[in-house]
Every structure is written in structure tokens, then in C-alpha cells.
């Protein structure tokens, strides 16, 4: 299926006709998401099966069987320290092929010994990173990033740290920093806006020192973000405003807000009549800012957190005073 893109249109059509008529049965496998990487014309005529990671218990049985076969090939029993089979089964992340490779590597390392014995230390050395199912352009990459941000948004520091560890173990420092900054702005936001420069400082420190030390400031920032009060009022407000703009709801900018140089030397004649808020009590006055076409539009709604409610009370009090 990966090669069909190199066929010309006539060849592709002929292949599709063969498949439809049952003349050809194609069986293909890919580590990519077929719904993104396989042509829709092929996909609509296919049955897609997703292979899930094998359970640890099943992998352990396969590892035991592999060591028995390797012992027979070696002509001598390979002794395993307690926990070796279980560790390999866990560390390979449900991938039987990786588990078999680990078993073979361990066996090769002790093949020349008089009494071959595989220790936990050896198993840990030879199965490092085997559990990492991670590709920076594929589903695994975006699944981990999604889980990372959603865990912080859901105020679960333990889960957030777990996904941070997976990102750092894969060496993806940049993606971890980016999602952390996004979460601080999007999910904590106006509930505690001071978090933004704090997280930015932690991200800068992480990028400056690099791995493995970068894990320390990032862990601090992740815990802070996960346990901070939450508000997405800022994101909701800008999304609502952008929705109107994309829909063409614009209108003419009120004359009072236009650039003072807009009419050149005719400013005094035409008059702008902008009133400077700082010249008025409480630095506020009732003045139109939205275009006529959008009068009454409301994008921002105060969040129910302490910080935004304090601002809401402040402005309600000022507007009430000036309206009386």
C-alpha cells in the first residue's frame, strides 16, 4: 500500500478493479495510522485490524519459551536470576519482537561463560529503552503529548509527571516544554496569570542546561501547573472573537478609535472626539469601542476562580458608581 503512490492513475485504477473483483487479496502492515497514510480509495475497500500491545503475562511466556530454545541451541541450560523474565516482559512494552531481541542479546552476552547466568543487572542494561513506543511524527508522539497536557489540565500531577518522564526518556525536550507553556496559558491562565513567567523561566532553564538536568525545572513546573487553579476563560474569549472575525463580522472601526493621523491635517475639522480614560475618575468612562456591527457582542466571561472574581467585583463597583 505504501508503494501505490508511485503507480500512475491507470495502474492505480486497474489495481482497485482487481481488488473489487476479488481477483487480488492484499495483506499489508504498517506502524503508521492507516487513516492518515493510506489513500481513501484503498481504505474504503479494506478491512483494518489494529494490533494492540501484548499483555505482560503473554510476553513472559514467550520470553520463557525463547530462553528454553536458546538453551537448547547453546547445549547448556541458561540460568535466570529471579525477576529477569518478568522485567523483560514489562520493559518491552507489549512488543514480543523486542522481548525476543532482549532475550537473544542476554544470551549472547553470557554465551562464553562456563555456567551461563543472566542477572537482573544484565537484563536491565540490554533492554534499556525497549519499552519506548515513540515516533516524533506518529500517533505515539501525539498520544503522549495529549495525555501530558490533559493530565495537567485535570490537576493530576502524578500522571503528568509520568508522561513528562516518557517524553524526556525519548529525548523530546522541545515538545515537553512547548506543551507545558501552552497548558500554563490555556488551562491555568487568568486564574493565576503569574504562572506564565514562572513556567517560562523553568522552560528557559531546562533548555539552557539540557538533559538530564532539564528534568528538574520541568518537574517543578509540571507539578505547579497541575496543582494550580484552572481557568480557560482567556482561550474561550479569543476563540469566540476569532470565530466572529472568520465569519466576516467586522464592521468599521469607531471614529473615536481611529489613528489620529488618519485624516491628516483635517483632524481638527472632522473631529475624532476620543476621550482619554486616564483623564477621568477611576481611569474609566463609558465609551464605544466595538464597531457598530458588533455592539453588544460579549466574548470574555469571568471565570469562577478567586482572581477573576476579584477583577469582576472591581469593575462592577466602578461601573455602578459612574452610572448612579
What does this molecule look like?
The protein has 324 residues and is an all-alpha fold. The chain folds into four domains: 40 residues, no CATH class; 71 residues, Helicase, Ruva Protein, domain 3 (Orthogonal Bundle), CATH 1.10.8; 89 residues, Zinc Finger, Delta Prime, domain 3, CATH 1.20.272; 78 residues, DNA polymerase III clamp loader subunits, C-terminal domain (post-AAA+ oligomerization domain-like), CATH 1.10.3710. It contains 15 helices and two strands.
CATH class of the largest domain: Mainly Alpha
The largest β sheet comes out as: 2 strands, parallel
Structural class: mainly alpha
**Averaged pLDDT, please?**
85
* Largest sheet strand order: 1-2
Fraction of residues in helix: 40-55%
Distance between the termini: 73 Å
Task: Compile the SSE list and pairings.
Layout: H1 9-20, H2 34-37, H3 40-43, H4 56-74, E1 79-80, H5 84-91, H6 96-110, E2 117-118, H7 120-126, H8 139-153, H9 157-169, H10 173-188, H11 195-209, H12 215-227, H13 233-246, H14 267-270, H15 306-323
Parallel strand pairs: 1-2
Helix pairs in contact: 4-5, 4-6, 8-9, 8-10, 9-12, 10-11, 10-12, 11-12
Amino acid at each position: 500500500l505504501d508503494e501505490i503512490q508511485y503507480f500512475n492513475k491507470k495502474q492505480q485504477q486497474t489495481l482497485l478493479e482487481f481488488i473489487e473483483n476479488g481477483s487480488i487479496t492484499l495483506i499489508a502492515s504498517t506502524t503508521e495510522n492507516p487513516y492518515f497514510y493510506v489513500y481513501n480509495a484503498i481504505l474504503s475497500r479494506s478491512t483494518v485490524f489494529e494490533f494492540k500491545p501484548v499483555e505482560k503475562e503473554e510476553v513472559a511466556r514467550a520470553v520463557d519459551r525463547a530462553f528454553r530454545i536458546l538453551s537448547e541451541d547453546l547445549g547448556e541450560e541458561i540460568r535466570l536470576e529471579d525477576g529477569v523474565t518478568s522485567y523483560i516482559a514489562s520493559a518491552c512494552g507489549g512488543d514480543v519482537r523486542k522481548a525476543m531481541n532482549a532475550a537473544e542479546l542476554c544470551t549472547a552476552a553470557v554465551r562464553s561463560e562456563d555456567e551461563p547466568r543472566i542477572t537482573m543487572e544484565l537484563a536491565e542494561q540490554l533492554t534499556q529503552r525497549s519499552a519506548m513506543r515513540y515516533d516524533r511524527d506518529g500517533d505515539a508522539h501525539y498520544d503522549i503529548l495529549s495525555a501530558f497536557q490533559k493530565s495537567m489540565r485535570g490537576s493530576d500531577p502524578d500522571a503528568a509527571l509520568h508522561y513528562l518522564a516518557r517524553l524526556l526518556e525519548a529525548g523530546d525536550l522541545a515538545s515537553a516544554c512547548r506543551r507545558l507553556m501552552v497548558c500554563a496559558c490555556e488551562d491555568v491562565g487568568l486564574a493565576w496569570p503569574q504562572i506564565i513567567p514562572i513556567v517560562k523561566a523553568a522552560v528557559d532553564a531546562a533548555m539552557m542546561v539540557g538533559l538530564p538536568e532539564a528534568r528538574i525545572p520541568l518537574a517543578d513546573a509540571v507539578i505547579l501547573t497541575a496543582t494550580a487553579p484552572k481557568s480557560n476563560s482567556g482561550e474561550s474569549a479569543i476563540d469566540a472573537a476569532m470565530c466572529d472575525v472568520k465569519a466576516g463580522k467586522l464592521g468599521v472601526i469607531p471614529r473615536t478609535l481611529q489613528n489620529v493621523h488618519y485624516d491628516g491635517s483635517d483632524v481638527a475639522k472632522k473631529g475624532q472626539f476620543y476621550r482619554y480614560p486616564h483623564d477621568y475618575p477611576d481611569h474609566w468612562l463609558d465609551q464605544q469601542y466595538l464597531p457598530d456591527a458588533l455592539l453588544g457582542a460579549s466574548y470574555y466571561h469571568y471565570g469562577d476562580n478567586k482572581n477573576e472574581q476579584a477583577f469582576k467585583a472591581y469593575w462592577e463597583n466602578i461601573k455602578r458608581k459612574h452610572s448612579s
